[in-house]
Amino acid sequence: MNSRIVILGAGESGVGSAILAQKKGFDVWLSDAGQIKPKYKQVLSNYAIPFEEGKHSEDEILKAAEVVKSPGIPEKAPLVKKIREAGIPVISEIEFAGRYCQAKTICITGSNGKTTTTMLTYHLLQKAGLHVGLAGNVGHSFAWQVAEQNFDYYVIELSSFQLDGMYAFKADVAVLLNITPDHLDRYDYKFQNYVDSKFRIIQNQTKDDFFIYWSEDPVIQQELKNRTIAATCMPFAYGQAPENGAGINKDTLTINWNKNTFSMSIFDIALQGKHNVYNSMAAGLAGKVLNIRNEKIRESLSDFRGVEHRLERFLKVHGIEFINDSKATNVNSTWYALESIHRPIVWIVGGVDKGNDYKELEQLARDKVKAIVCLGTDNKKIVDFFTGIVPDIIETQDIKDAVRASYYLAKDGEVVLLSPACASFDLFESYEDRGRQFKMAVREL
């Protein structure tokens, strides 16, 4: 029997998968077309896992019984097509690790808010004294933790790319926050393909599992009409809380589950802003179905510190507040950012456009944005759309120039908001890199 597993990509998920595969007795080989970071190279050497970098040796890769692919490598890549043509299964790290995981999984997806909700849910479970790991898009590799830790619970943030490579994996608690157009370049510019990808979060669920979702989301509403849901449904929305679910009424957040009610004032929630109230309802519901006590849920929702690069209010310079929202890599994320600020904004925007439609930002930009500072190698689409809507538009291709320009455009009491609505890969390694460089440039003012 062929026991060869090939891992494509040597980031956190790839290296974790390689460690787990080796531990389970597979013949492992790892291949990365780029240069592997020194810290990961060191780990591979320590575990004596054979690897290559700077190329993909097709003849070696096509000997695999199964391939674990990094979520960053698109299906359209010629190598992935060849692997599939050879009839070799291609799976994600989450699918692979799930085979060896006995722990309960709380899996969270959505176009926006998933990192905040994941971190908040993890915080809640930790506070309750549960033995819990944090994995997926945040935290450490799920596979690596399954190989070397023994957690009872995992809170896992899942992107659509990770969900695409999952087949037998099941979430015990699935959370779907919202669905708005994103990553359409990876889905043949067909929104339904992306929607189907997000709904993989509930695949394989049974009546013993839970599905937590935002019931006001029009896309989710429509999809639920066309699907049979096996799990117990736990909707959340503004308005009266359902019998099993969450709601907001007269500034009170209420969660009902199994004839047990939890409530607290929305003004006591640590994360302010309408979108964060949704995130808090989702995390609170996950806590309830895991039978966490009300006082622990209340404590967690009221003392959570937030997520770096997500509406991070981190510094004031001469009365100008600088907000780092580098994690806003799509239009809808930026909509939430603009909507939550009630002072004049100098908005830093731009990067790799993923098929953005800026129409939904038009009214907010008219009402709130006094100037735009573009930050990207190609800003034409942004300039064309917002000319005549925002009085001042400046183009930059360097974070220091962008920060300096925004500083000169803003006045005491106003806000400079980095909320790019685009991916970061034209000028930065990642949205984290973009956020950190932004903060460094602000500190140097």
Automatic annotation (TrEMBL):
EC nos: 6.3.2.9
GO cellular component: cytoplasm
Catalytic activity: UDP-N-acetyl-alpha-D-muramoyl-L-alanine + D-glutamate + ATP = UDP-N-acetyl-alpha-D-muramoyl-L-alanyl-D-glutamate + ADP + phosphate + H(+)
Highest taxon listed in the record's lineage: Bacteria
InterPro entries in UniProt: Mur-like_cat_sf (IPR036565), Mur_ligase_C (IPR004101), Mur_ligase_C_dom_sf (IPR036615), Mur_ligase_cen (IPR013221), MurD (IPR005762)
Higher taxonomy: Bacteria, Pseudomonadati, Bacteroidota, Bacteroidia, Marinilabiliales
Biological or metabolic pathway of the protein: Cell wall biogenesis; peptidoglycan biosynthesis
Assigned protein family: Belongs to the MurCDEF family.
Protein's name according to its UniProt entry: UDP-N-acetylmuramoylalanine--D-glutamate ligase
GO biological process, one term: cell wall organization
Pfam families: Mur_ligase_C (PF02875), Mur_ligase_M (PF08245), MurD-like_N (PF21799)
Cell compartment(s), UniProt: Cytoplasm
Statement: the UniProt record of this protein carries the keyword Membrane: no
Residue ranges of coiled coil: none
Gene Ontology terms for molecular function: ATP binding; UDP-N-acetylmuramoylalanine-D-glutamate ligase activity
Domain Mur ligase C-terminal stretches: 309-422
Domain Mur ligase central: 108-286
Binding site for ATP: 110-116
Alphabetic keyword roster: ATP-binding, Cell cycle, Cell division, Cell shape, Cell wall biogenesis/degradation, Cytoplasm, Ligase, Nucleotide-binding, Peptidoglycan synthesis
Described purpose of this protein according to its UniProt entry: Cell wall formation. Catalyzes the addition of glutamate to the nucleotide precursor UDP-N-acetylmuramoyl-L-alanine (UMA).
